[in-house]
Write a structure and sequence with these properties.
The protein is of the alpha/beta class. It has helices at about 20-30, 40-55, 70-80, 105-135, 155-175, 195-200, 205-210, 220-230, and strands at about 10-15, 35-40, 60, 85-90, 135-140, 180-185, 245. It is globular, with a radius of gyration of 17 Å. The relative contact order is 0.15. InterPro entries: NAD(P)-bd_dom_sf, Sc_DH/Rdtase_CS, SDR_fam.
Length: about 250
């Protein structure tokens, strides 16, 4: 796929680490200019530097995707910097606190939904008008296998990720005839800082996660990034509204 996005401009939210960083690097490898967005400045700036070190173009923009003003500024900065926006990976998200449905606090529920689900909606709200002006574009939203199957003690996270799938399908239907393709990726258990926080770095907890995976291992951010880049490329020109599972077989059980 080398050079599949040559001359394109790609935006990645949550680009400071994990899947977002891998996606940003993959977009750059394929020839895109990359706008890296994250609320964490250090990680986001580091990703942008990593891209520049490979000889490609990148800019970092600090943005909290749960705030409309931040997202509007993010999209306007991307367009002001590179004159257009061709691809967007709306990836920023958090796991929230672990608790059963009855014990989940309202504060935790609101925070997870605001970042994971409202954040994806806000990104599309401002990305889509720009893509319409250009008469085309591709959007990939990060959902999860937790949007397809239930997980104990993660009610807000599961709800947010399931909502992303339905939001993706809705937007795909609305804009398919207008040149904008909207899809989602549903990662399984991927070796990211989020998973490391959940396991606390303890081997026994990691082993439990590995036990969920028929592949017998955790996935890598790069494996998810390959799916994201493909969905944004012309090779996926007839793929719309699809929640692509990248999970080592987890939901096939």
């Amino acid at each position: 796929m080398a050079g599949s996005l040559e001359g394109k401009v790609a935006l990645v939210t949550g680009g400071g680490s994990g899947i977002g960083r891998a996606s940003a690097l993959a977009f750059a490898r394929e020839g895109a200019k990359v706008v890296v967005a994250d609320v964490q400045v250090k990680g986001g700036e580091e990703t942008a530097r990593m891209i520049k070190d490979t000889g490609h173009e990148a800019v970092f923009v600090k943005a909290d995707v749960s705030k409309a003003s931040d997202v509007e500024k993010l999209i306007s900065t991307a367009v002001r910097t590179y004159n257009r926006l061709d691809c967007a990976h709306n990836n920023a998200g958090i796991e929230g606190a672990s608790a059963s449905t009855a014990d989940c606090t309202e504060e935790n529920w609101d925070r997870v939904i605001d970042i994971n689900l409202k954040g994806v909606w806000l990104c599309m709200k401002y990305e889509i008008p720009q893509m319409l002006r250009q008469k085309g574009g591709a959007i990939v939203n990060t959902s999860s296998v937790a949007g397809l199957v239930g997980f104990r003690d993660m009610p807000a996270y599961c709800a947010s990720k399931g909502g992303i799938i339905q939001l993706t399908r809705t937007a795909a239907l609305e804009y398919a005839a207008r040149g904008i393709r909207v899809n989602a990726v549903c990662p399984g258990v991927i070796r990211t800082p989020m998973v490391e926080r959940v396991t606390g770095g303890k081997q026994e907890f990691e082993a439990q996660f590995i036990g969920l995976e028929p592949a017998g291992r955790l996935g890598t951010p790069e494996e998810v990034a390959e799916a994201v880049v493909w969905l944004c490329s012309d090779a996926a020109s007839f793929v719309m509204g699809h929640p692509m599972v990248v999970d080592g077989g987890l939901v096939s059980q």
